[in-house]
Automatic annotation (TrEMBL):
GO CC aspect terms: plasma membrane
Keywords: ATP-binding, Cell membrane, Coiled coil, Kinase, Membrane, Nucleotide-binding, Phosphoprotein, Transferase, Transmembrane, Transmembrane helix
InterPro entries recorded: CheY-like_superfamily, HAMP_dom, HATPase_C_sf, HATPase_dom, His_kinase_dom, HisK_dim/P_dom, HisK_dim/P_sf, Histidine_kinase_BarA_N
Species the sequence originates in: hydrothermal vent metagenome
EC top class, as a word: transferase
Protein name: histidine kinase
Length: 906
């Protein structure tokens, strides 16, 4: 809508009604006048025709043409009359007179109107007075006879002229009225807009800050009231500004004082921050030193544990040593998490994912905590549901850490009963699964109010619990962060006095083929097992394992039903009995042994809630039965069943003897190894050829491309830092040349793997990353996985755990050979490092140290590798101020290694 001012609105207000009324009235009067003119013309034409009809009665009757012409000439004397036509009753024209003056115009326009009247003869009949049928009506209504017709044609020009004059006059009067109204509206609008314009000018002055505005009050009525109000407003604004300026002055003075106070506080805060940073740095140094001090004895424990494992041990000793090793290994992981709590809070903790067996991971956690649970008389029960895939791509060490925290807390806050660990499948897609793992105890429970305090750093329910149960309240906080990093969440369901269920979820990739799923074992086909376990949950856990293996299972919660089944004709090959070794269980066991002596076609396996080797040995010797400690491990159950059901089966013997080799075999695989470091190349080639692979060696990315063009490989193992063309460039070229259905797995090898590097490698098309030194078994398994499942790529990244000594995987002969190669390379590497350091070429020094550091992982030079690792990390983090000292340490270790090698040769 058009934005009009007051003047325009006044004009519209004045003109619209007046114009509307004028147009309506003009239209009405014009219409009425035009109708009157038409009516007058029609009356005149009818009257003229009627007059001629009456006058020409005698002439038509008598046939006197002269009288008719005289009448016609008299009628044609009028300008409007154009033609007069007289006909007899048969339609024969007696007279046709035209107005010669109007004839031309009539022919051109043909604007005429015709009026006609009949010529009637009046006949009066004379009747005798004695006529019988004479009536009064006959005397007043004479007989009429039509003699002919008179037609008069009148021109419409005169009528049209009169109409035009009428329209013109009406419109002229209307226009004059509108103009007069417009003039009056303009005059009235000026009277209103002039004072408003003055007010507008005054408002602009006030807007510019001039509040000393004076308005002349010349108007009357409401406009004068408006002017007075505006003047009062300007006066009020002037007073308000004055007061505001005074307040601003006072506020400015107060603000100045506040600013001085804030500046003083900022100075104090800055000093406090510097102190806090110094304290944090001191804490970091302390933690680093403590890390070194703690790792040293733990590494010693791990080292001597591995040495003990190489000696001749009984099965109990072997199990005990394995438990020690796992405990020390997990202690190292826990130490890493405690030292890296700041990384967790900053969101910088990353996961090292790989293929893992989820069932074995859970069993490992249960085995580690079994002694603590059994000391309190608590039984650990694992329910691994059959629809859960066993082989997953996730961080097994972090899952184990969460499990240790949750199960450890459950044991801590329980005094008896049992703890159930359930592993369930929540969601499943074509590529990913959501797994839910819960830990349910029968402990003291947690109130709703206290549940809100969980999962926060250093938070415990109350101080009394901290004294009673010990701990610092860090485990659940770490578990929460790890669960979120694993793509899930963590929570608790509990009521005070009614136990608690801690649960967490993980979201991870699964294998597309059926390799990870539980499948029946053909060697168990046709065998049946009877179970006696009063604990229904424990019995259900064992049933899951046995049914998944293809066995027929008969569970019993009461010994009477078991004995009846044994006495019946039902075939039972093995009886598995859970016992607590109390008097009641001992009686049941004696009865079972007695029945076995009478019916020797079944074996007995005892499940004992103890991992004490002495107790287990006593049970085996006392009852001459296989004895398996709780918590149950799937592999132990399967091994025990195999030893009883098929102890001499050639097929089983072959499977047992070759199973491991079959898993690790790469027979028939054609692999390309791209490595510029001769030591690394020789070691990787040795590892792969030992398991049957055919290996081709090249030294850089360009040679890898040339080999790829001419030869077909099953997989490519490629170093990332190489001369001529690095691993990223080579991988990008290979991916650009691949067909849609021809994907070759590429495994990257690097001595260091930062988060930023990881993304660059994956974007280049590398399927998996391994950090040197890589675990031999993991390398072989990864090659088989990627070759069998190429679509499961683009996010595989793993490295040897810090607690595992990768050197133990390298056979002694090849390690000696690699060390000899290293001795030959040291002088050249040292010279290159000295040159790069002297000119400050840190990039070149980083390339040299990276290549050198990667090769040291497979040689007998741990101290030199540690020093080279420190140098490499300094170069990556650009800590150039410490490079000189670190480089000196590397050179010192080089000299020691050379001197040691020289003495050995002497």
């Amino acid at each position: 809508m058009i934005n009009l001012g007051i003047k325009g609105r006044i004009l519209l207000l004045a003109l619209i009604p007046v114009t509307g009324i004028a147009l309506v009235l003009s239209t009405y009067f014009i219409h009425s006048q035009l109708q009157s003119l038409d009516y007058a013309l029609n009356n005149h034409g009818q009257a003229l025709a009627r007059h001629l009809a009456i006058a020409s009665e005698y002439a038509v009757f008598s046939g006197n043409r002269e009288i008719l012409e005289a009448l016609a000439k008299q009628a044609l004397s009028e300008d409007a009359v154009v033609t007069i036509i007289i006909t007899d009753k048969r339609g024969v024209t007696l007279l046709n007179f035209r107005n010669r003056l109007a004839e031309t115009d009539i022919d051109e326009r043909q604007k005429i109107r015709i009026f006609s009247q009949p010529i009637i003869q009046q006949i009066i009949t004379n009747l005798d007075e004695d006529e019988a049928f004479y009536t009064e009506e006959d005397s007043t209504n004479p007989i009429q006879e039509t003699l002919g017709w008179v037609a008069v044609k009148l021109s419409l020009d005169t009528l049209q002229t009169e109409k035009n004059e009428s329209i013109f006059n009406s419109l002229l009067i209307t226009l004059l009225g509108i103009i007069l109204s417009l003039l009056l509206a303009i005059r009235l609008g000026r009277g209103l807009t002039r004072p408003l314009l003055k007010l507008h000018c005054a408002a602009e002055e006030i807007q510019r800050g001039n509040l000393d505005v004076h308005i002349k009050r010349e108007s009357k009525g409401e406009m004068r009231t408006l002017e007075e109000g505006f003047q009062s407003m300007a006066t009020a604004l002037r007073k308000s500004r004055k007061n505001l300026q005074q307040q601003i002055g006072r506020a400015t003075a107060g603000l100045h004082e506040s600013i001085q106070t804030v500046e003083q506080q900022n100075t104090e805060l800055k000093q406090a921050r510097q102190k806090a940073l110094a304290a944090s740095e001191a804490k970091s140094v302390f933690l680093a030193n403590m890390s070194h001090e703690l790792r040293t004895p733990l590494n010693g424990i791990l080292g001597f544990t591995r040495l003990i494992q190489k000696t001749h041990l009984t099965s109990e000793q072997q199990d005990y040593i394995e438990t020690i090793e796992k405990s020390a290994d997990n202690l190292l992981h826990l130490l890493n998490d405690i030292l890296d709590i700041s990384k967790i809070e900053a969101g910088k903790l990353t996961l090292q994912k790989s293929f893992c067996n989820l069932s074995s991971t859970i069993d490992d956690a249960l085995s580690l905590l079994a002694p603590a649970a059994q000391d309190k008389g608590i039984e650990l029960i694992s329910l691994f549901y059959q629809d859960v895939p066993e082989t997953l791509f996730t961080a097994a060490d972090r899952i184990r850490q969460i499990m240790l925290n949750l199960i450890g807390n459950a044991i801590k806050f329980s005094s008896a009963g049992f703890i159930v660990i359930r592993t369930m499948l929540e969601e499943e897609t074509n590529e990913r699964v959501l797994i839910r793992i819960s830990v349910t105890d029968q402990g003291i429970g947690i109130s709703a109010e206290n549940q809100k305090k969980l999962f926060h750093n250093f938070e415990q329910l109350d101080n009394s619990m901290a004294r009673q149960y010990k701990g610092v309240g860090l485990g659940l906080a770490i578990s929460r962060s790890l669960a979120e990093l694993l793509g899930g969440e963590i929570g608790v369901d509990s009521r005070e006095g009614d136990g608690a269920t801690f649960w967490f979820t993980i979201r991870c990739h699964k294998l597309q083929h059926k390799q990870g799923e539980q499948t029946p074992m053909p060697q168990f086909s046709g065998y049946s097992v009877g179970i006696y376990d009063p604990n229904e949950t424990s019995s259900l856990s064992l049933m899951h394992i046995l049914k998944a293996s293809g066995l027929k299972v008969y569970p019993h919660q009461h010994p009477e039903t078991l004995f009846r089944q044994i006495a019946s004709d039902t075939k039972i090959d093995i009886v598995i009995m859970a016992t607590s070794l109390d008097s009641q269980d001992t009686e049941i066991l004696q009865s079972l042994l007695s029945k076995r002596r009478h019916k020797t076609d079944f074996s007995i396996i005892l499940l004992v809630n103890s991992v004490d080797p002495v107790t287990l040995l006593f049970v085996r010797q006392q009852y001459e039965c296989l004895c398996i400690p709780k918590p149950l491990r799937k592999q132990e159950i399967i091994s025990a069943l195999e030893s009883l059901l098929a102890p001499h089966s050639p097929q089983q013997t072959a499977e047992i003897s070759t199973g491991s080799n079959a898993i690790d075999s790469l027979s028939g695989y054609k692999l390309l190894v791209v490595e510029d470091n001769a030591i690394n190349a020789k070691l990787v080639a040795h590892i792969l050829t030992q398991v049957g692979a055919s290996v081709s060696l090249v030294e850089n990315g360009q040679e890898a491309i040339d080999s790829y063009r001419h030869t077909s490989f099953d997989a490519i193992l490629m170093d990332m830092h190489m001369p001529v063309m690095n691993g990223i460039q080579a991988a990008q070229w290979i991916r650009s040349q691949e067909a849609n259905d021809a994907h070759i797995p590429i495994i990257g090898l690097t001595a260091s793997l930062l988060d930023t590097d990881r993304e660059n490698y994956f974007q280049a098309g590398i399927d998996a990353m391994l950090v040197k030194p890589a675990d031999n078994g993991h390398l072989i398994t990864l090659i088989r996985k990627l070759c069998a499942q190429p679509e499961f790529s683009q996010r595989v990244c793993a490295k040897t755990p810090p607690s595992v000594d990768a050197d133990t995987d390298t056979p002694s002969p090849i390690k000696t050979s690699l060390t000899s190669m290293l001795i030959k390379e040291i002088p050249d590497v040292r010279a290159k490092m000295q040159t790069a350091s002297a000119v400050g070429d840190w990039q070149q020094l980083q390339e040299i140290s990276h290549k050198f550091f990667g090769g040291l992982g497979y040689c007998d030079a741990k101290k030199l590798r540690a020093a080279a690792g420190r140098l490499h990390r300094c170069l990556i983090s650009e800590e150039y101020s410490t490079i000189t000292d670190t480089l000196a340490d590397v050179f010192m270790e080089m000299d020691r290694l050379l001197a040691s090698h020289k003495n050995d040769r002497a």
